[in-house]
Amino acid sequence: MTKVIKRTKLAATLMGVMAFAGTGVAAAQQVDVAKLQNEEKKILEADAQSQEKVNSLFEQSQDLLIEYRSVVAEYENLKVYNDHVQRLVNDQEATLASLQKQIDGIERTKQGVVPLMYEMIDALEQFVKLDIPIHREKRMERVERLRDIMDSANVSTSEQFRQIIEAYQTEMDYGSGLISYQGNLEVDGKEVAVDFFHMGRVAFLAQSLDLRNAWIYNNETDEWTALEDEFIRPLTQAIRMSRKQTAYDLVKLPVFAAESAE
Q1: Within a 10 A sphere around the Cβ of 216, how many other Cβ atoms?
Q2: pTM higher than 0.85
Q3: pLDDT, averaged in runs of 10, over the chain (262 residues)
Q4: DSSP string, 1-38
Q5: pLDDT on residue 159
Q6: Residue 132 CB: number of other CB atoms within 10 A?
Q7: Which of 49, 154, 173, 175 has the smallest CB count inside 10 Å?
Q8: Rg over CA atoms, the chain
Q9: Rounded to whole angstroms, how far apart are CA atoms 196 and 160?
Q10: pLDDT of the residue at 262
Q11: Residue 261: what pLDDT?
């Protein structure tokens, strides 16, 4: 009886020890699972952080790629523009070189043109003095103006030459058409208001405003000669024709014939 009881107690004790041991193992297993879960959580968090860094780096790389492409495109545009500007500069340099060459040529040309212009003015003055006295004072004033502009530094050589040519053209115009204008004529020491009339350079005449007297200029003697009465009415008509006050018609006017050489 006693042995049975002892064995029973021993078995109970063993069972208690095993139960305690089983409880400890279970507790240890729970602790290991918690650690594993905690480690797994840390790993997942680390993975998430790594993924965030990867995403951030990817976004940065995309931004850098876009910026790189923009810089490349800008570089290409600048290169095209710089090449264009360089061609313009080259063309301008060629143009400047050509202009400089022309300027040098102009300077050489001016050395020959300027003396020629002075000769043209002298010839024009001589011509006015020898020509019939149509607007003689006005024409001599024009010659003096030409001499003044030749001494002016503010007038270019081309403008000086243009005005000389213009003066020659004006002289040519005096030699064509029927032209009349009013002025004063000195007759026997007195100033008489007259209508001057010239038919080109063929004849130069004058008629008093009262239509009673008329004169013709003799270029050989540089004098005015009174006309016969028969020429007064034709001269009046010729003056009216020059002013377009009447239709053109044939009129009889005196003309000094050139003397034939003997």
Answers
A1: 20
A2: no
A3: 50 52 55 73 79 82 83 80 82 80 70 90 94 92 96 91 94 88 91 93 93 92 91 94 91 71 42
A4: -HHHHHHHHHHHHHHHHHHHHHHHHHHHHHHHHHHHHH
A5: 92
A6: 18
A7: 154
A8: 60
A9: 31
A10: 44
A11: 41
Cα torsion through 153, 158, 161, 167, rounded to 10: -100
Amino acid at 104: D
In the structure encoding, which two tokens stand for residue 141, read together? 């004033």
For residue 118, CA distances in Å to 123, 126, 166, 189 come to 9, 12, 15, 37
Q: Which residues contact 206 (CB under 8 A, 6 or more apart)?
A: 185, 194, 195, 196, 197, 214, 215, 216, 217, 224
What is the C-alpha to C-alpha distance for residues 111 and 118, in angstroms, rounded to an integer? 12
The 3 state secondary structure assigned to 31-99 is HHHHHHHHHHHHHHHHHHHHHHHHHHHHHHHHHHHHHHHHHHHHHHHHHHHHHHHHHHHHHHHHHHHHH
